[in-house]
Design a protein that fits this description.
95 residues, six-stranded mixed sheet, two-stranded antiparallel sheet, mainly beta, Metallo-beta-lactamase, Chain A
Length: 95
């Protein structure tokens, strides 16, 4: 279970627990945030998808989940999804 929840601004969150660090719409992050295991991006607006902030938390093994238009702009382990689609990444189920 994810135990620690951090809100950064607007829709940007971090959850930690079970050995995972997960971000949703990382934007407005401080320098030196903990590296991400999984990053969920909901859509392409700058207050949800900010490449400079993603660079602050990205590591070689970071997995991304994003709509196709955002997924096409990312490199590495990327799972494109459609609205309402269910899947699992790094043991985390989502819809």
């Amino acid at each position: 279970m994810l135990e620690k929840f951090t809100w950064f601004k607007q829709s940007a969150y971090q959850w930690k627990g079970d050995g995972l660090t997960i971000y949703i719409d990382p934007w407005g992050l401080r320098d030196k945030e903990e590296p991400a295991d999984v990053v969920f991006i909901t859509h392409a607006h700058a207050d949800h998808f900010e490449p400079e902030d993603i660079a602050k938390i990205r590591k070689n093994t970071t997995q991304f989940v994003a709509p196709r238009d955002v997924a096409d702009k990312l490199e590495g382990k990327v799972k494109p999804i459609k609205p309402g689609e269910s899947a699992e990444v790094a043991g985390v189920k989502f819809e």
